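# nightly structure sweep
# worker-07 picked up a monomer target from the shared queue
# config: single-sequence mode, recycle default, output format = C-alpha cells
# input follows
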Amino acid sequence: MGNVIKLRKIDESNWKEAINLKVSEKQKEFVASNVYSLAQFQFLKNFKAMGIYLEEQMIGFAMYGIDSDDGHYWIYRLMVDEAYQGRGVGKQALGLILEDIKADNINNIPFVILGFNPENKVAKQVYEKAGFVETEIASWGEQLARLELI
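# output follows
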C-alpha cells in the first residue's frame, strides 16, 4: 500500500467516525466493538485511543498504553475497517503504534504485550512478522504475545 497512514487521537471531533468502523462479520468474534473500547478507555490511565488514518479518512482504531495491573505496555485493540483490510494497513499501524510506545517509554518498560483470539490467523501472522513471541493462553482465552522493547 503506497499511501501513508498516520495515527490521530480520538477526541470529540472524530469519535463518531471511530464507532462507525466495522470489521467483517466473521471477525466480529475476534475484537471488541469500538463503542465498548471507547467506553473502557474512559477508565484507563496511561492509555491512548487513536484513529488510524489514510489521508483524512479514519480507516481503523487502536488503543494501547501502560496496564496498571502489571506495569507493561499493552495493545488492547487494533482493528482496520473491513473496506481497507488486506492492504497492509494493520501492519503499518502496528509499526506506528510500536514507534509511539518506544518514544514514550521513558521508564524503560521491557515489554509490550497483546492478546488475540487463537483462531485469528491473520492477526497471528501480523504479530509474528512484527517480532511478537507467543507466550501463554490468558485466563480469558486469548493467546498472549510479547515484544521486547529494550
